[in-house]
């Protein structure tokens, strides 16, 4: 059996993710959907034959919805309401 590259107690540093989160912190929506992060995302999409464009990012509008919750066998079930992915994504607490 080979040794793992990771060992208990190792620290994972994700500098690119940290910079992205700082841009979102500093610029809000535009920290993700415009500027540096958007350019990096589009560049990565193009390299992987993805279909998301700069226009898609510019036109995207998020919608806040109240989640659906229910109790089931001692678990609190939380999911996304219609018309989106209701039932596809479940969390339990």
Characterise this structure.
By secondary structure, this protein is of the alpha+beta class. It folds into two domains: 15-59, no CATH class; 63-93, no CATH class. It has four helices and three strands. The chain has helices spanning 15-27, 30-33, 35-47, 54-59, and strands at 68-72, 75-79, 90-92. A three-stranded antiparallel sheet has the order 1-2-3, with no helix packed on it. It is extended.
Let me know the largest β-sheet.
3 strands, antiparallel
**Strand residue percentage:** 5-15%
Number of helices: 4
Unreliable stretches, pLDDT < 50, 5 or more residues?
Answer: none
- Secondary-structure content class: alpha+beta
User: Alpha-carbon distance between the termini?
Assistant: 36 Å
User: Shape, please?
Assistant: extended
Using only C-alpha atoms, the radius of gyration works out to 19 Å
Short description:
39% of the residues lie in helices and 14% in strands. With 93 residues, it is an alpha+beta fold. It has two domains: 15-59, no CATH class; 63-93, no CATH class.
């Amino acid at each position: 059996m080979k040794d793992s590259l990771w060992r208990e107690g190792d620290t994972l540093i994700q500098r690119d993710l940290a910079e992205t989160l700082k841009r979102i912190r500093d610029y809000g929506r535009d920290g993700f959907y415009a500027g540096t992060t958007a350019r990096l995302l589009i560049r990565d999409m193009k390299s992987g034959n993805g279909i998301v464009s700069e226009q898609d990012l510019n036109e995207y509008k998020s919608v806040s919805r109240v989640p659906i919750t229910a109790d089931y066998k001692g678990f609190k079930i939380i999911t996304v309401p219609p018309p989106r992915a209701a039932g596809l994504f479940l969390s339990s607490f």
